[in-house]
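2024-03-11 09:14:02 DEBUG pipeline.ingest accepted 1 chain
2024-03-11 09:14:02 DEBUG pipeline.ingest length=132
2024-03-11 09:14:03 DEBUG pipeline.predict start
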Amino acid sequence: MQEYKKIFITKDEVVPTAKRMREAGVPLAMIHGFINKEGKGNVSYEYEVGTGIESYTVDGENSLPSIESIYDLGAQWAEREISELMPITFEGLDTSKRLFMPEDIGENKGQILVTPMKELINQRFPGKEAGK
């Protein structure tokens, strides 16, 4: 079974953590992001350490430094995707071209509206409860 360890860090610790991991030869597995209940960003940098995952998480920031210069395309793609889908930016990251959203949809401010399944079912089938 794979071990998962979550470690909270600050915005200022993102780059030093990435550098330390890269120098140790630790692969960057993924970068995940979401918006918390307060409307602030939550970004997790997940590294494959041995047979487990160490997730270094920054909560409450909508602007973070990019680690593209440390992990190249492995970081760039995930950072660009997050910045395209959510109002989270990565300082120093080139977002002049979109990955998959139409160019005329907005200015990299997060364009995806997530609707809970219950609301979608109610819109499609008024009066029917989700899961029944």
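2024-03-11 09:14:41 DEBUG pipeline.report The mean pLDDT is 85.
2024-03-11 09:14:41 DEBUG pipeline.predict end
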